[in-house]
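Thread: Tetraspanin, structure

OP (GT): Posting the sequence first so everyone is looking at the same thing. Length is 247 residues per the record. Can we get the structure tokens written out before standup tomorrow? I want them in the notebook alongside the other entries.
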Amino acid sequence: MEGDCLSCMKYLMFLFNFFIFLGGACLLGLGIWVIVDPTGFREIVAANPLLFTGAYIMLAMGAMLFLLGFLGCCGAIRENKCLLLFFFMFILLIFLAELSAAILAFIFRENLTREFFTKELKKHYQRNNDTDVFSSTWNSVMITFACCGVNGPEDFEAIPHLPYSSLEKATPEACCQRELQSREGMFINKEACLSGIERFQNRQGCYTVILNSFETYVYLAGALAIGVLAIELFAMIFAMCLFRGIQ
């Protein structure tokens, strides 16, 4: 009976580690896609050091899970105590790091409100100054998602113009409609847009556009994160049980 139980534990351990292996492969692929994606996300990531760092952290986490899943599978099938202990310690560190990140995200979730983004935009945005990381990132977001400001073009009425653009209205160049939503895309009518003609402007706020675009994916990501944490927890339990059961 004890041998059957150990054998069952071994194959369950292999199964859970196979899922971790697949999860790491997916995370690795997602990180690579975010960095090399040619449709606009690459511009946003490159313009913001925090996002740039986050993308590489995603790559590193994916590679680590990929490796740990592989080692866990090998340790379970070969019943190698060293591999199992190595796997347990590293998966525990990853589990604690992910749990800490989830708690911090929950605590600081109030910083993702519409009011917070509106206040930061009005305080730091410098229109077409692409040497400023904040402004460049906002311009990339508005171009990529065909939106304007947090709530709409009215967010820019209190933001001063650059000296050489005194003839422009409040709407920045990034809010003008383009034939293709990228920095290389041709303007439909730039002069009319900057002079205040609304039909050549993107009038919808970015907060609503992005929220609608990612609402489904946020719940999916949350469910996936809970699933990953549960799999890691069970994998650690099985690893320790298998480790203690191997003679």
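GT: Both are above now. Quick notes for whoever picks this up: Confidence is low (pLDDT under 50) at residues 162-168. The chain has two domains: 1-110, 114-204.
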